[in-house]
Design a protein that fits this description.
This protein has twelve helices and nine strands. It is of the alpha/beta class. The chain has a domain of 204 residues: P-loop containing nucleotide triphosphate hydrolases (Rossmann fold), CATH 3.40.50.300. Strands 3-2-4-5-1-6-7-8-9 form a nine-stranded mixed beta sheet, with helices on both faces. A hairpin with a 5-residue loop joins strand 7 and strand 8.
Length: 328
Amino acid sequence: MDRCLLSMINCALPRAGKMANLQRNSMAAKYPIESEGKHLDSFLNELEREHAVKEISGWQTGFVNLDRALDGILPGLYLLIGPPTCGKTSLAKQLLDQLAVHNNVPGVFFTLTETSKELRIKTLARLSGLESREIRRGSAYLLHWYGVPKAHYGDVNDLPPSWEKLKQSAREARSWLDLTYIVEHVANTDLREVEKCIGELRTATNSEKIFVIIDDCQRLGQRDQTLADRLPIVVEKLQEMAVNLRTPIFATWPDLGEIGESQPQAWSEKVASPDVILVLETDQERTKKLTEPNQALTLHIVKNRGGDKGKLAFDFYPAFSKFVEVES
């Protein structure tokens, strides 16, 4: 054990003769023995001060049907599972942005694969209606492609799809973008570093509750283990972190077929820890009605400790990194 740490531990321990006395006093101070009847009046007063009538208990996601099913976003672990290219990262980034917009709460996106630049492009594409690939090519390309001179417009709806529209969309989002953070992590990042960073953000934002997204959380496990072996270990640690920090953690996990679960419901039996398990699946029949590469997806809520189970329908527009809730 580290000598400095050992010294701190030794200093914190009382001499044996004083142990019993110290324990009794500290326990009484930390955990006062008071009945629920004594707390009743103060708790009722606290509830009475909540004048706003809420349809859901937790934070709004910006998706009405998802809010109703989940009862909003509450502290705990949310696990999103889906195959590659189905839009897990785009959905997670959209949720982060929409929680900041609708709830005025800070959020952090831990990316273990995508760059911060790509994640910012996803947000700008969704906000501006410009395709991600066009944004990557920069303002010169946009102005040349659309033949639009640099100009300033009063109403964003009157703007042509140009660099000016992109900049105005970004300016209008600044108020809530100030609440969101992207943290890029290098190889061998572990959960201790993630938890430390969340603590630093809590201090910086002066907020106890932060919406935390961990994309591709399987990379927090041991690289020499299969996904099937990593799954219960990583998820258990994330659940413990969510409980300890008393904050919502939304983590994505890839379905590469290694675990061999063909039915979405089977995932709820594979991992017991999460409060909510969501599984994205392509709706082949509905996708045929959309223009390629747009996808129709079903979001299965296969586990939900705080609300309903079931399924919701979404359309995913990859060019704009945008999910739209539709009636199934």
